[in-house]
Design goal:
The structure is a single chain. The chain is α/β, with parallel strands linked by helices. 48% of the residues lie in helices and 9% in strands. Strand 4, helix 7 and strand 5 form a beta-alpha-beta unit. It has a single domain, classed as Alpha-Beta Barrel (TIM Barrel). Helix 7 packs parallel to helix 8. The structure holds manganese (II) ion.
């Protein structure tokens, strides 16, 4: 079946076509499946969001729209997401078993603590990381996780990253794109990069709703969310980080981008050509000359996951352009729980070694997983 036609076949939410599965049991399978962008939250986060929404306390169009819906809607989809974000026990494990996911790297759901006041966000990140560490300790053979932080206070965030990694054993950092409409390329945030590089852990730059300056033309047609806006927001964020020279300053730093690189890999040639031309022209004060080209940083300082994209053409393209050792599997549970997608990815037309790298080896190496 060709990839284009396969894409046209509709997928229902939470499809359970178990007869399509190749092999959910690990015995006899050539690789473990490690899912690397799996969301959770303590129930208290939903309570906090509801209170912030009721008090109209967050100056963020995207947050108010997205969580106004997810926190309160009685639709089946929203109920499913709320119930399963907050579960890191039997139900999640049974869904992982059903889909044949051996291991999940958990991260605090978007936008995490980034909509809170500086003091509240800093305190809640600590609470959420402790809550996550407890969940991992109950099922260490199934879960690991990433440390949340509140970049609103970059020095406190760096300390929490260090505590999360060295004391709690967390394997990286989650940042949910913009921080109250600001981006990490601003040097005031660079303590976060410094901490991650020093600890040799990656930062997963996960989507958030677009910042207020980006979101308005998307809203009228419902394009602000995962359908399109998330990639615009997150792709912009990583480009700002690159163009600012963050990787010249922190050359060993590794980011992770989901959603097959938030569409950036397809534009590599033009990014390089136009960046070279624009930087040389001196047109923009905020576009300094860099040591390397944009595609060099995207190849050497970024890892990628397919989260939410169970379609092999862009995954193969990502492997070809970024390297087989940089592309990892993710499901994006519970926002996108589809057993059938696992079977589709198992059936990808790539070499067995590349498939094992995708499902298992790359995640184990990048996150230094003990499994
Ligand atoms: Mn996600």
């Amino acid at each position: 079946m060709d990839g284009g036609r396969q894409l046209l076949r509709p997928l229902d939410d939470n499809t359970r076509e178990t007869d399509m599965l190749g092999d959910t049991a690990i015995e006899g399978r050539a690789y473990k499946r490690i899912a690397t962008e799996e969301a959770f939250c303590p129930p208290e986060l939903l309570e906090r969001y509801r209170r912030l929404l009721a008090d109209n306390a967050v100056d963020d169009i995207g947050f108010n729209g997205m969580w106004g819906f997810y926190a309160n809607s009685s639709s089946d989809r929203c109920q499913f997401i709320r119930d399963h974000l907050t579960d890191v026990g039997d139900v999640r494990l049974s869904h992982m078993d059903e889909a044949g996911i051996d291991f999940a790297v958990l991260a605090l759901t978007s936008p995490g603590v980034q909509v809170m006041t500086t003091a509240d966000g800093t305190a809640f990140a600590t609470y959420a990381n402790d809550w996550l560490a407890d969940a991992i300790a109950r099922n260490p053979d199934r879960f690991d996780g990433l440390a949340a932080c509140a970049p609103q206070d970059p020095v406190a965030a760096a300390k929490e990253i260090e505590r999360g990694v060295t004391k709690l054993g967390l394997k990286g950092v989650i940042v949910n794109s913009h921080i109250q409409h600001e981006y990490l390329d601003d040097q005031k945030f660079w303590a976060v990069f410094e901490a991650a590089e020093a600890l040799d852990v990656p930062i997963y730059l996960h989507p958030n709703s677009p910042s207020d300056g980006l979101i308005k033309p998307m809203l009228g047609r419902g394009l602000d969310g995962a359908i399109w806006g998330f990639s615009v927001e997150t792709g912009l964020h990583v480009l700002r980080i690159i163009v600012a020279g963050v990787f010249d300053r922190f050359p060993k730093l590794q980011l992770v981008l989901g959603h097959v690189g938030e569409s950036l890999p397809f534009t590599l040639y033009r990014l390089d050509y136009m960046h070279r031309a624009s930087a040389a022209s001196g047109r923009y004060e905020g576009m300094p000359a860099l040591k390397r080209s944009i595609s060099d940083y995207l190849r050497d300082n970024v890892h990628y996951t397919n989260s939410g994209v169970a379609w092999d053409p862009p995954i193969r393209f990502l492997q070809e352009t970024m390297g087989v050792d940089r592309v990892m599997y993710a499901m994006d549970y519970p926002y996108q729980y589809s057993v059938e997608e696992v079977a589709r990815l198992d059936a990808m037309t790539i070499e067995p070694a590349a498939k094992k790298a995708f499902f298992e080896d790359n995640a184990r190496k990048l996150f230094k997983l003990a499994i």
